[in-house]
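Discussion board: Methods & Data

I've been asked by a reviewer to show the raw model output for two of the constructs in my manuscript, not just the figures. I'm not sure how much to include, so I'm pasting the format here to get opinions. Each protein appears as its amino acid sequence followed by a line of discrete structure tokens. Is this the kind of thing reviewers expect to see in a supplement, or should I convert it first? Here is construct A:
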Amino acid sequence: MDFSLLLHFLRFDIRSRSLDLEPWLRQLYRSNDLRAEFPERRPRLELWVERADGPQALAIAAPGQATFTESVLCYGRCYYGDGRFHSAHHGGYWHEIEYDPRAHRIRANVAGAYLDSGQFAVVYFVRPLLNSFILPFYGLKALHGAVLGRAERTVFLAGSGGAGKSTAAAQLLRAGWDLLGDDAPLFTLRDGRALALASLDYLHVTRATLRLYPELEAGVIGVADHKDKFAVDPDRVGRGFARAPRPVTHVVRLRRGAAAARPAVVPLDRRAVLRDLLGEAMTVFRPAVFHREADGFRRSSEFIFDIARALVRDASAYELHYDDRHLAELPEILARLPAAGTAPGDTVAS
């Protein structure tokens, strides 16, 4: 199997002699070509993955002198040594991974639940691998939230698990908004501004959300994941993805179940929003080994910080208190939020 996915300006090549993930990759991802928008960026990343129990398994050895990166790679503790990252996890989702940033190559063997289904391999291996600390080396960063837009307005929906980001996204889709990403939209920087890009995977909804929005049933792909969420392809239900980069105009933290008779919108201190974003998204390579090879690692960390800072600096920030009785009102509430502006005591440093 040889499969290429174009993540806007990053070409991601996936190859295997023992696994056929292509049908699920085609269902759960789609390419988007933004190389004309970013002509100076043409990076390429390769993933070579094989079954650990087959004759094509790759020879992957942990580096002799390795330093814990204080991070994980696909659910496994990650170490760095000899210019390579190494991660191993020998539980139900068995893997061993080697990432060489200089060669722009990931080599991996997988076993256990990854072999039960091509869907599992894509959802639990390829997707977390992309959304780990690797993408910032290539000018992309996945953030936890949902991004949707309509006309000149682009809203980043934030909040903890269960806050209703996917349900709110489904309501906005029903009202004609365009989806950029649910759960892990991608971001990049251009001229100091954070731009939201399509995640290019799918909408993630619970059974309860499917009951609220039965029109999404036609787009369901495969079975529920470990969070009991279903993948829904918006293209199958006539919604589709927004393909062009969009600057975020509003950051809205959702507080589900916190409203009384009416939904309430409360301005947020953007410094607190920035702190929350960095707490979730920031990767800092702190051990001394990274100081000796500082340029690439420092740029990766600075890139993440600059995206979070620019995103919060250029957008208005609010907290929305609501419950499911108010879902039909959300599109109008979000469409009427005041435009970006800095309130006193609410400055995010440039």
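Construct B, same format:
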Amino acid sequence: MEVGKIQVQNPAVPVGTGAWAGFGVTPAQQTVVVGHFDTHGVCAAYLAAKAFGAVDVFANFPATSPESLVQTLQNLYAAAPSRLRIIIVDIPVNLKDPLTFVQGLENLAARHEVLYFDHHETSLPYMPMFRNVRALYVGPSALSLNETLLRMIQNPAEIDQVISLIGAIGDRDSEVVRRGFFNAELQTLSDGLDVLVRERDGALNTLKSLLADPMGTLARARARANEIPSARLGQRIGSVGIAAETLPAQWGPKALEKMCFATGTWYGVGYGYDERSRTWIVRAIIRWDVAARMPSLPQPGAVARNLWSTRNIIGHPSAPSVAATSEEEARSMVEQWARALASAATASASPNVTTFISETRVGEILAEVLQRLEQILESQNRMYQEYLELKRRQVELLSRGERRAAD
């Protein structure tokens, strides 16, 4: 199937018998699907809605965050006049108050049937606590969750398989790369969906749009993918690119990663200013496809902990951030982080992958290379001149021999 400019191969997901067989669901039952508000959450909710024949869907920021989910479900469905089937997908357990999260879903399950699908490893310890909720952990890969839902769809279309991959790419899921499904066009579509879901009420609007017109929605996503800005490369230290200017507030990590894709660097480091907290924030990211291909490479979060053991390092280890006390300190931390990442990557990369050259030696090494090339060219020219001289003498000797024969 062709989606815009891409040709997507079938990821060989077996055609299932539909969600009805696996969960005892009848199509007549009123089913609603609630998903996370990011790209993966919207795509997973799309698949679940198709699998279970949902009559309603909901996903939005911050209503379907782990912290707000229980209250949102109470507001939306607790007083529903009839028993519902409520499907929750891609929303991890609230680690700030996990017991309240579990009990809240359990309370809801006393009136409605509640199915909870998640792939986050942080949720796994709490899955056995559910009694009335039918909880299913499918992870840690986002693609595993999507493909589980995909198998539940009766005769899934190829567009469903595309959306499954796009959602997993939105979660930077290394399984997509390891299984050979990743390409630049799918990355573009995922970026475009990211733009759409971040608009006001964007997650809900995008989810409904996908269900109504998936091809048209993906076409809109492609057209808007370039709205994610790319940071401009200011300096390169080994495998690490440093952003030339301050990062955009909304798109800091994504801007760094786009810079990495554009420049071929493995890591991106930069800083920006957070208006809400009035704090300078230093960020680093490892390009997710590189991390999937070379899992031995160090994560930026691990390197940051070695550098600043007393600082609060937040976010995923592959894309963490650290607060700075001033812009001057932020600049210093960026360079320090970049050099530490480059050094750690050099130490961990296999010799047959890449040999890193220190930026300070690039000019010196280039001069050595040019000098060696000049010596090779001089040697070749000298050998050629000697060859011509030998040919000249050969011709002269032949001429003498012919004259003697004539005499």
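Answer (T.O., handling editor elsewhere):
This is acceptable in a supplement if you add a one-line summary per construct. For B, something like: The chain has 15 helices and 13 strands.
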